[in-house]
Amino acid sequence: MTTFFGAVLCLQLLSCAAAPVKYSDGYQESKNSAGVYTVRFTGNGHTSPEAVEKALERRCAELTLREGYDWFTFYTKSRNDHVGMRQKSVPSFYGVIHMHRGPVGEDGFDAKKIVAEPMPAWIESD
Fold this sequence. Notes:
It is a single chain. The chain is of the alpha+beta class. The strands form 2 sheets. A 5-stranded antiparallel beta sheet has the order 1-2-6-3-7. It has helices spanning 2-15, 49-66, 111-116; strands at residues 27-33, 36-42, 71-79, 82-83, 89-90, 92-100, 109-110. The chain contains 3 helices and 7 strands, in the order αββαβββββα. The chain is globular and about 45 Å long.
């Protein structure tokens, strides 16, 4: 009986753990509030900074559409390169976006237009 209650207690404690942040395919994202996300994309030593920036914008567009919005703007957007173990620079872009509905405003990114563009071969999954 003690073993049973011990097992139940362990399961209850494990169920309280926070959900993990997704770290696959170079993306990392978190929802800050309704319509506001922080998104990061990190390439590898063979990915150009321009390609990494485009991948960040595409992920932002996908999130915008998933959340039911039409377009987004960047509150902040910056490039943060990292030096890997072999001293090769790894490009990374970080942005905080605000999602909007309706016609695309000034400095806005049209999510449907971005997602409709073909994905570069290096981004596609096997």
